[in-house]
Design a protein that fits this description.
- The chain is mostly helical.
- It has one domain: Ferritin, core subunit, four-helix bundle (Ferritin, Up-down Bundle), CATH 1.20.1260.10.
- The protein contains 5 helices and no strands.
- Helix 1 (5-31) runs parallel beside helix 3 (71-86), helix 1 (5-31) packs parallel to helix 5 (122-143) and helix 4 (91-116) packs antiparallel against helix 5.
Length: 146
C-alpha cells in the first residue's frame, strides 16, 4: 500500500467517525430502557467497533498515526447526548438523534469518497463505502422507532 497523506487522512476520518459512533452508542445504551431498542443499539455498537478496529489496524499496518477524537470532542459529545436526553429520553427521540447523526455520517462519507477517489488506496475507499452503507442502513433501521 502506498504511504500517502490521502490514505492517512481518509483512514483517520473513518477511525474518528467510528470512534464517535462507539462513544455515542455506549452512552445511549445506558440511557434507554427499551429492550428491543437496546438490542439494535448493541448490534450497531458491534459494527462500529469492527469498523473502528479495522481502520486502526490499517493505520498501524501502514505506519500512520491514529488521530482519535480529542478530549474536548469526547466531553462535548457526552454533554450533548445527556443534555438532549435530559427532558426526553424516549426511544423515539433517541432514534431521531441517531438518524440525524447517521445522516451526517452518510453525507461526510459521500464527500470523502469523491475527494479521495483515485488518491487513496482501493481498500481504504472500500472501508469508507462500508461505513457509508452501514450509516444508511442505520437511518432505515431507526425509522421504525420514530
Amino acid at each position: 500500500m502506498k504511504e500517502t497523506n490521502e490514505n492517512a487522512q481518509l483512514l483517520n476520518f473513518i477511525y474518528q467517525n467510528s470512534q464517535m459512533g462507539v462513544n455515542t452508542i455506549t452512552e445511549l445504551i445506558d440511557i434507554t430502557t427499551d429492550d428491543n431498542f437496546k438490542k439494535q443499539l448493541h448490534a450497531q455498537l458491534k459494527e462500529y467497533r469492527q469498523i473502528h478496529d479495522e481502520s486502526a489496524q490499517m493505520l498501524e499496518a501502514n505506519g500512520f498515526n491514529e488521530e482519535g477524537l480529542s478530549a474536548f470532542e469526547k466531553i462535548r459529545t457526552y454533554l450533548m447526548i445527556n443534555f438532549q436526553t435530559l427532558t426526553d429520553d424516549s426511544v423515539s427521540h433517541i432514534a431521531e438523534m441517531l438518524i440525524v447523526g447517521s445522516t451526517m455520517g452518510v453525507i461526510d462519507a459521500i464527500r470523502n469518497v469523491r475527494t479521495y477517489k483515485g488518491k487513496a488506496e482501493p481498500d481504504i475507499l472500500e472501508l469508507m463505502e462500508h461505513l457509508r452503507i452501514f450509516e444508511e442502513n442505520n437511518v432505515e433501521r431507526f425509522k421504525a422507532y420514530l
